[in-house]
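Sample log: Sulfotransferase.
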Amino acid sequence: MATIHFISGLPRSGSTLLAALLRQNPRFEAGMSGPLAGLFGALLGEMSARNEFSVFIDDAKRERILRGLFDNFYAEPTAEVIFDTNRFWCGWMPAVSRLFPDAKVIACVRDLPWVVDSIERLIQHNVFSPSSIFNYSAGGTVYSRAQQVVAPEGMVGGPYDALKQACYGAQRDRLMLLQYETLTTHPAKAMEAIYGFVGEPVFDHDFDHVDYDVTEFDERAGTPGLHTVRGRVKAEPRETLLPPDLFKRFVRDAFWRDPERIPDGLRVV
């Protein structure tokens, strides 16, 4: 099997843009969030004590079965290095380190108010297309939607908790936080740091022509444009759609920006 690394972190924080850039390297395979993390959790659950036949499955078998999931999913690799993307890989850091001792995890992060703003902007843009983010339910307000996405089981809250667990956990030496602001403002610096982190020779990326489009998937989820990347990598300043009190509610959540809150050994780019 090819070398494997993982892209994780927060939604609306640059993971699709990062994958689009990595795909420019012919040695790499990367894409939007895939099904492996969900299958991984489902398999673990089915091999647990809730299954009466779990007495026939020890940890060695569990490891082989879980590794087989990756081996079979990527049985026909088109690249030497694979980056599998899912927001919840940060929550599986102990297991990932056991299965793939050399694997690294790149967690894409962004200031929380702008993550929530980005989701709200997408919802308001697709006003006639209820989104899977809210179980295809129409209506609500910016406040109710923000509360839902930042809840522990929400689109933002769950990955944020998993991110914190990974950042303060025992496996943080294999974790790097990639800030959205760095990726969009200084893409060459960001990519150089990633290549150094995963131990691969630097590739000359084209930051003026970046494309990634999965229109059919996004439209089916009721979120057209969710994973579309086109054109030049650049920062695009804008006014927020969030009311001031709602915006301020999340300002302090970017712990990776506070030197006193960054644990020893954690890489932040």
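Observation: The longest strand covers residues 3-9.
Observation: Residues 215-223 have pLDDT under 50 and may be disordered.
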